[in-house]
Amino acid sequence: MSNRSERRWSSDEAKDPPDPRTPGQRDRDRVLYTSQFRRLGEVTQVVGSHEMELFHNRLTHTLEVAQVARRLAERWADSKDLEVDPDVVEAAALAHDLGHPPFGHIAEKHLDDLLVAAKIADGFEGNAQSFRIITKLARRSDEHVGLDLSRAALQATSKYPWRRDTAGKKNRKYGAYHPEGADFDWSREGLTGPAVDQQTPEARIMDWADDVAYALHDVDDFFSAGLVPLDRLARDPREQAGFLQRTFDRWKDEHKTLLGTEQEYTAAAETLFSEFPTEPWGNQQARGIMSRMVAVGINRYVTGLSLDGGALVEDPDMRRELDLLKSLTWTYVIEAPALAAQQEGQRRVIETLLDYYVDCTDKNQFALPAWARAYLSNSDLVAQHSDESLGKLRVACDVVASLSERQALALYGRLTGHDAGSVVSSIVR
């Protein structure tokens, strides 16, 4: 049986004086102090991080996921039927969104399209990029790459513990690229049978916490901004029917696996609608109802995972409610016509920056950040790519995905001549 606390490159015992922290505490601290974690403060959660202070960004979302995940894990910290370390779960929650590029899902999809078109079958996926960061791109030592997290932490970070497949869910969501194959295989050691490509209990807890935070806090954001009409959904049957129809149609197009029938989801929606405020956000009573709904919701959904025969299982009623809450953001914000022009502009920014950095890998590597130059000069890392040119494209993609939105827009302005900037003002270091 492989050791959960084992690290691939180093030993926790090889310190003088000895480190008093547990392996899980070291994992948490290593993620917390990375520049990749700090960057999340200027990365989109759903809408631009520059919009206004009331919107969540990736950093506030990540901190909330970590808080919910830790509270969940603490319930089973002393269980004899389940091996759960709250520090490992918190480390995974802090790391789970490190790989998301500037501009959120629209950039993630466009980078994937661009890389697949260039014959990189792995494409781009935020979760796989997070795994690449913690195992290759982030550094805590000059002796090896990555954060050298424990096997347990790497497993807990893997929401989608498989490589990319050619179709279905495993084509849309996956946890590792080909160059990180050895790291990924090492992280799954000790798991046998079906467990090899299933979430560990700690990953399941982190994933559930991610859904809880996303569902509740984003709905709160966009109701307060006047984008999600909770008040109309609370009292207008036509609005309710329209929302449900759009939701079911989208889920069919996505081949989403539902936990129940459409009738059961409709019943869950009726329960949610009855809890929504009946007045718009500007009303003081509506604000109070929303604050209470979020607090009560988190408290309730924290109980949505239970232990049954040594396995964690989801409460089906709560899963349906979370699916519907998440659909509110998709239906009224992500699919909104007002966002379409902004998203087209963001795609152009991403494509321009990728072309620029691909050119830099060939002709001007000094324009790359130091960590990217170090990657390209490491023959062992470059050899893990099937082709040198594709390896350079992957590194160019790494650079684009590592930018904050402020950096991406500033660099795009310089490249297109829209904003010349200053020669003494460095954008990317």
Describe this structure as you would to a colleague:
There is one protein chain. This protein is mainly alpha-helical. The chain has three domains: 23-201, Hypothetical protein af1432, CATH 1.10.3210.10; 212-337, no CATH class; 339-416, no CATH class. Helix content is 58%, strand content 2%. The protein is built from 20 helices and two strands. It has helices at residues 23-32, 35-39, 58-75, 86-95, 105-117, 126-137, 151-157, 169-172, 181-187, 201-224, 230-235, 237-253, 262-275, 284-301, 316-334, 337-363, 370-377, 379-382, 388-402, 405-416; strands at 305-308, 311-314. The longest helix is centred in the C-terminal third of the chain and has 27 residues, at 337-363. The chain is globular and about 60 Å long.
Feature tags:
58% helix; HD/PDEase_dom; 3 domains; 20 helices; dGTPase activity; hydrolase; dGTPase-like; dGTPase; Hypothetical protein af1432; two-stranded antiparallel sheet
Coarse shape: globular
Structural class determined from secondary elements? mainly alpha
Helix content: 55-70%
Mean pLDDT: 90
Number of separate helices: 20
How many individual β-strands?
2
Compute the gyration radius: what is it? 22 Å
CATH superfamily of the largest domain: Hypothetical protein af1432
Order of helices and strands: HHHHHHHHHHHHHHEEHHHHHH
What is the number of domains? 3
Which CATH top level class of the largest domain fits?
Mainly Alpha
In the CATH hierarchy, the architecture of the largest domain is: Orthogonal Bundle
Q: Sketch the major β-sheet.
A: 2 strands, antiparallel
Strand content: under 5%
- Point out poorly predicted stretches: none
